[in-house]
From TrEMBL, chain A:
Pfam families: Usp (PF00582)
UspA domain span: 57-115
UniProt-recorded name of the protein: UspA domain-containing protein
From TrEMBL, chain B:
Family that this chain belongs to: Belongs to the major facilitator superfamily. Sugar transporter (TC 2.A.1.1) family.
Protein name: MFS transporter
PROSITE patterns per the UniProt record, alphabetical: MFS, SUGAR_TRANSPORT_2
Alphabetized UniProt keyword annotations: Membrane, Transmembrane, Transmembrane helix, Transport
InterPro entries: MFS_dom, MFS_sugar_transport-like, MFS_trans_sf, Myo-inositol_Transporter, Sugar/inositol_transpt, Sugar_transporter_CS
The Major facilitator superfamily (MFS) profile domain, residue ranges: 31-460
Transport among keywords: yes
Transmembrane segments: 30-49, 69-86, 98-120, 126-149, 161-181, 187-207, 271-293, 305-331, 343-363, 369-392, 404-425, 431-453
Top-level taxon of the source organism: Bacteria
Topology of this chain in the membrane: Multi-pass membrane protein
Acetylation listed as a keyword: no
Localization in the cell: Cell membrane
């Protein structure tokens, strides 16, 4: 049993990580954090008290959605996926695609989507 | 000549025993010489069109559009070769890739030499271009991976120098051939044929060269990698270097993690945009228009056809002088940002002077000479400040995990901008004259200076981690 969380290098990523830690505590399990940024996840976001966090780093070239889907396939013990969502412009979607949309449609586990307050 | 990318110098923190002299040293020198033939060929094949175009125009019945097409198809092939060559490097190794590249150089050369018409000439130029592009991504990597850490910088620089020397040789040999056999029909075929000689040398040489130890390790072939290191290092140094090579192989794998989806982060999108703009601005100085069309240009300036092809040698010589001065003196003496921006100020000023000369001086031999002097001054400043420094700056600009993607995209932008400008150049000159084309370079130069002044961060004197930290927190100075 684990809660997996996708952590891009953004405010949504930090929020998703905090929410995943709370969710894991509720379920009494640990966190698998998929780092989608280009830098290590900042230690201040990793304050988790009792909850154990395993960080999964990217190892080769894939789109962000593929990275998370492959991590899910490699960790079948995952029972929840946490993602941060935000509004994307049409142009942005066309250029880079929407990671959240792909995950909502493709992932086989229940997803907890969190967003920043307006 | 603003095409290649030197491999970034990496500090792995592994301590190594000092280099020792011995038979392995001579072996390493030989490897460097053979691999540099790739750079020479690159230069020769891009430069040879400069003198060959004039006789070819009459022979194949070229107009300004097809003239641009013959020159630019090589660059489209090169864009393709840069992408496919990078994949081949990883899949089949550096040695096999370079051997195939040598064969393609040969095939492309023969295709051009015997082309009866455009239908054969254009595909031959694409094949030759493919070889040029693949060489541009393979030779620096191969050299950097075989060189000991202490000599890595000089060896990558040697490839840059080989490219401009190859162009200079092409200009000189063109002038000699034009003077000896200028009256022969199809004299341009002799000029193109000369490139078959270094292609054959590269092929024969590569058959005897070892594979890159770093690639062997990335394939899990550790024993083979150690065998190669024993050939090019002393015994105890070879063993000590295995650890370093493994670390570099891992770091290289990490450098290819990033891609399009990382552009969603604003600071990363901004870095990639700056990188691509810098690559485009470098090409839009028009350096390669001079390297490909210099002879034509000097004829337009007022030289006779036979004098123009000789005068064009000056462009080649000053390119070599500027590159050498950059590599051996300038590159580590000035902040990267200052060197690049001052370089653009210098080239743009010269462009402005060329416009004034072309507009104000009446057509005469003295005008031709003034334009020649300005032209070589431009080439000198360009090679001094905007060739190697731009590539070094790009290799430092991108965060490690994005480096493969960022460099790949910038190199792609560079080839495509080069191809578009090269294709359009004869038509623009025919339509707007020398003043028109250099006026365009001048305006683009002003825009580039303003853009870089505002956006280009300084990348020298800081570690890559420090740079990454500062960009991520929104500080781009």
């Amino acid at each position: 049993m684990s809660v997996m969380v996708a952590v891009p290098d953004s405010a949504e990523g930090a929020l998703a990580l905090t929410s995943a830690i709370a969710e894991a505590r509720l379920l009494g399990t640990d966190v698998l954090a998929v780092n989608l940024g280009l830098r290590p996840i900042s230690p201040e976001h990793l304050m988790s008290g009792e909850t154990r966090i395993t960080i999964l780093e990217r190892t080769h070239h894939e789109s962000h959605a593929e990275v998370v889907l492959h991590a899910l396939a490699e960790h079948p013990e995952t029972e929840r996926l946490v993602i941060g969502v935000k509004r994307r412009s049409k142009v942005g979607k066309a250029l880079i695609g929407s990671v959240s949309q792909t995950l909502l449609l493709e992932a086989d586990v229940p997803i907890l989507a969190v967003k920043l307050p307006h | 000549m603003s095409h290649g990318a030197p491999a970034p110098g990496l500090n792995t923190g592994v301590t190594l025993p000092p280099l020792e002299a011995g038979p392995h040293q001579r072996r390493l020198d030989l490897i460097a010489i053979v691999a540099t033939f790739g750079g020479l060929l690159f230069g020769y094949d891009t430069g040879v069109i400069n003198g060959a175009l004039e006789p070819m125009k009459a022979d194949l019945g070229l107009n300004t559009v097809t003239e641009g097409l013959v020159t630019a198809t090589l660059l489209l092939g090169a864009a393709l070769g840069a992408v496919v060559g990078g994949r081949m490097n990883d899949a089949i190794g550096r040695k096999k890739t370079l051997t195939i590249v040598a064969v393609l150089f040969f095939v492309g050369t023969l295709g051009g030499v015997f082309a009866p018409n455009l239908m054969v000439m254009l595909p031959a130029r694409v094949i030759l271009g493919f070889a040029v592009g693949a060489a541009s991504v393979t030779v620096p990597v191969y050299l950097a991976e075989l060189a000991p850490t202490e000599r890595r910088g000089t060896l990558s620089g040697r490839n840059e120098l080989a490219i401009v020397v190859g162009q200079m040789l092409a200009f000189i040999i063109n002038a000699i051939i034009a003077n000896l056999w200028g009256h022969h029909e199809g004299v341009w075929r002799y000029m193109l044929a000369v490139a078959a000689v270094p292609a054959a040398a590269l092929f024969v040489g590569m058959l005897r060269m070892p594979e890159s130890p770093r690639w062997l390790i990335s394939q899990g072939r550790h024993d083979d990698a150690l065998d190669v290191l024993r050939e090019v290092r002393s015994e105890n140094r070879a063993k000590a270097e295995m650890a370093e090579v493994e670390q570099l192989a891992q770091e290289e794998a990490e450098s290819n993690v990033g891609g399009w989806s990382d552009l969603a982060v604003p600071w990363i999108a901004r870095i990639v945009m700056i990188g691509c703009a810098l690559a485009a601005a470098q090409q839009l100085t028009g350096i390669n228009s001079i390297m490909y069309y210099g002879t034509e240009l000097l004829k337009d300036a007022g030289f006779s056809a036979s004098a123009a092809i000789i005068a064009n040698i000056a462009n080649g010589v000053l390119a070599v002088a500027g590159s050498a001065l950059c590599l051996f003196v300038m590159i580590d003496r000035m902040r990267r940002r200052d060197l690049i921006i001052r370089g653009f100020i210098a080239t743009t000023t010269v462009h402005g002077l060329i416009v004034i000369t072309a507009l104000l001086m009446p057509a005469s031999t003295s005008r031709a000479w003034v334009i020649l002097v300005l032209c070589v001054t431009f080439v000198f400043f360009m090679q001094l400040a905007l060739n190697v420094p731009v590539w070094v700056c790009l290799s430092e600009l991108f965060p490690l995990r994005l480096r493969g993607f960022g460099m790949g995209l910038s190199i792609m932008v560079m080839w495509l901008v080069n191809a578009a400008l090269t294709f359009a150049f004869p038509s623009i000159v025919a339509f707007a004259g020398l003043a028109g084309i250099f006026g365009l370079f001048f305006v683009v130069g002003l825009i580039a200076i303003a853009f870089l002044w505002k956006f280009l961060p300084n990348t020298s004197g800081r570690s890559l981690e420090q740079l990454e930290e500062s960009f991520a927190s929104g500080n781009f100075s």
